[in-house]
Prior knowledge:
Elements: H1 7-25, E1 38-39, E2 46-47, H2 49-71, H3 88-98, H4 104-124, H5 127-131, E3 134-136, E4 139-140, H6 141-147, H7 150-166
Antiparallel strand pairs: 1-2, 3-4
Amino acid sequence: xxxxxxxxxxLEQICFELERLQKIVQNIPFxxxxxxxxxxxxxxxxxxxxxxxxYLIGWSELVLNWKDASDKGIEIEMPAKGFKWNELGxxxxxxxxxxxxxxSSQLLKIYEEQIHAIIAIINKEKNETLxxxxxxKEHTLGRMIQLNTSSPMKNAxxxxxxxxxxxxIV
Length: 170
């Protein structure tokens, strides 16, 4: 899918990628979630499926926090408090740690809940608010949401496919 240019396309992309993620993850046994065989978020690193889903949860949580802070008129630290855009590998490691104690069987459920909360936000906003006003630097709110929801889901799906193939998981 391409870059969304309006509210409807954004919703379609998020829902499409979430459905794909749900399907690809559904038949992976939970004991395979800790096999360190997936390309990580830092150069030459490997992670496991638990960490990959934690990464998705971390970014969607940031989106929710950004929007909440913005609505309250609070200055947003991008990408996250204590992190700069050139430290995304460290931020990924924080996400892995933040969700390491969560049972693997709960990760997708948590992520789905967050994505549904983001969808609710999108549904409340007008297209003009999402795509016709700059929200962060040169990016619109819609673009920032896409960059941190459907785009990382799409990348995660590709990584999970490779992982499943390497483990002969159908």
